[in-house]
Structure of Hydroxymethylglutaryl-CoA lyase:
Amino acid sequence: MMRDQVVLVDCPRDAVQGLHNFIETDKKIKHINTLIESELFDVIDFGSFVSPKAVPQLADTKAVLEGIRKNEKVKLLAIVANLRGAQEAALEEKIDFLGYPFSISETFQLRNTNMGLAASYQQVKEMKALADSQDKSLVVYISMAFGNPYSDPWSPLFVEEWIGKLCDLGIREFSLADTTSEADANQISELFSFVKSRFPTLEVGAHFHARREESLAKIEAAYLAGCRKFEGALLGYGGCPFAKDDLVGNIPSELLLHYFGRGTDAEIIGLEHSFRQMIL
Ligand SMILES: CC(C)(COP(=O)([O-])OP(=O)([O-])OC[C@H]1O[C@@H](n2cnc3c(N)ncnc32)[C@H](O)[C@@H]1OP(=O)([O-])[O-])[C@@H](O)C(=O)NCCC(=O)NCCSC(=O)C[C@@](C)(O)CC(=O)[O-]
């Protein structure tokens, strides 16, 4: 597998956002700089500009950013959950992408951003204009894209409807997020094939929460259905603390690296070690 065939994203932001012990800013900076220097990932989802009361672990995102040494090969993405966060992130020169979680489950959108779908949609419109004005890309995560644990309405047609509406706002980069690990590999294959057939020109990435033993089958299902952008977190940490109590972590990034043939075993073990050192 050639490494330039896919875009790989590591998400230390997702990995640590729910950890209760505050990780010192310097440790976060050290690990993120190690990730960047390795050049094994194309994008690092490094932090979020959200309420420090909602996510105390990431209250230091701006300070972390100051310590990050970027290079030309690796881009930075920050999660934003309201217009204020988008305004702050958009002004940061080092940030390339703003990522907005747009859940197609009303319950989760309220839990995560304190806004319903209709208000969030209006907000995306403003965020897109803001991102464009600062030369940033806005990636919209379709959270709960594979179903939800709240019995909110879900179907592939519902996914299609919302992607279509977001396209009308000029959004071209999406990530289908299985926020609470609802899908098996077959359902992943079906939804990616369906979305790719309806929107062949869009970039549609995969942000899966999955148990380690199921991860390779899910990566392969999405890849064979045409997905060329994958997100994960080292050692499979992470999950959105506003989704539910028994969270399932991200696809382990080391499995993505192995699957797509990036990095030597020693390099990958080195990144795992760096992550462990950060969270100790
Ligand atoms: C969006 C809000 C703020 C709305 O929350 P709200 O309560 O409606 O906001 P508010 O405007 O009423 O403000 C409440 C307080 O937050 C402060 N505040 C308000 N905005 C900001 C900001 N931008 N930066 C810093 N502070 C902010 C504001 O100043 C105020 O502080 P107080 O006056 O009480 O001291 C809140 O719900 C929030 O922060 N949510 C966090 C969402 C989040 O980070 N979720 C995890 C990341 S998304 C994810 O993990 C999913 C993903 C991407 O991985 C894909 C997937 O798996 O689905």
